[in-house]
Design brief:
Elements (H helix, E strand, L loop, with lengths): L4 H10 L7 H4 L1 H11 L11 H14 L3 H13 L4 H15 L1 H17 L17 H13 L1 H10 L5 H16 L6 H15 L3 H14 L3 H15 L1 H14 L11
Helix pairs in contact: 1-3, 4-5, 4-6, 4-11, 4-13, 5-7, 6-7, 6-10, 6-11, 8-9, 8-10, 11-12, 11-13, 12-14, 13-14
């Protein structure tokens, strides 16, 4: 019993020369999983291999799958995801998953990069200073979320929580989204992947579906990402994500506004 030929080829491209110990101890499960994750779901969607691997890394951070993250990070580096891109994926996770969850992934990333001969630290990617982060962050936030929506959030915030809105602008957007290494479309797609993998973030997922639309990621792109994440995050969280995509970006011919 073994994965099919197409699944073996895709697996070998990502993990050249690697033989899974689980294929020995759990051959039936690995046959099902490899045929699904490395063949069947790859027939759906528009993501190229590099983007697919980056989205999967982001989701594994969100769901705390550190062992699988180590494996998939090796695959990502093999197919050409750069060390800078890898680090930016991890950094992008901090404002969403929190350092408490990202800490171990940062160390794992450093260990794997070092083992591959990458000298750390990498060249800095920050584009802001303590003096400019708020202004730049607010501008970037309005570009992604929409100026009217951001202004409304500030206006609606009670005095005792207004500081959170400022933190979002200065820290989440000013410190992170303004960095080089990944463009805004990729950062928003990664954020979507992290949030759907975390679970329990449905209001934020819905907001970032709209944000993805604003930066140019269409319904097909988000459905492609959700589909490629399915083998790793499971059906409940994938179906929740699809429901929110449907609410914000209905399928053609299924717009609830139409009579």
């Amino acid at each position: 019993m073994a994965p099919n030929e197409q699944a073996r080829q895709h697996h070998d491209e990502l993990f050249p020369g690697h033989v899974s110990t689980l294929s020995v101890t759990d051959p039936e499960l690995i046959e099902y999983f490899d045929n699904f994750a490395f063949d069947e779901v790859l027939h759906y969607g528009t993501l190229d291999t590099r983007t697919r691997l980056m989205v999967q890394l982001a989701a594994l951070i969100g769901m705390q799958g550190i062992s699988e993250y180590r494996v998939m990070l090796g695959a990502a580096l093999t197919v050409g995801v750069t060390p800078v891109e890898v680090k930016e994926i991890v950094y992008q996770a901090v404002p969403y998953a929190g350092m408490g969850k990202v800490f171990d992934f940062l160390h794992a990333t450093n260990e794997i990069l070092t083992a591959r001969g990458v000298e750390l630290p990498l060249e800095g990617q920050s584009t802001t200073t303590p003096e400019t982060r708020m202004e730049r962050g607010l501008a970037t936030q309005k570009e992604i979320v929409g100026a009217d929506a951001v202004d409304a959030m500030y206006a609606a915030a009670p005095d005792d929580t207004a500081h959170i809105q400022r933190y979002l602008s200065g820290n989440c957007f000013g410190d992170h989204y303004t960095r080089r290494g990944l463009d805004l479309r990729t950062r928003e797609l990664l954020t979507f992947a992290m949030l759907i993998a975390m679970g329990g973030c449905e209001p934020q997922v819905k907001g970032h579906v709209a944000a993805n639309r604003n930066v140019g990621n269409d319904r097909q792109t988000l459905l492609s990402a959700a589909t490629q994440l399915l083998p790793f995050i499971g059906y409940p969280r994938t179906l929740n994500a699809i429901r929110l995509i449907d609410e914000v970006m209905p399928a053609a011919g299924n717009d609830s506004d139409k009579e």
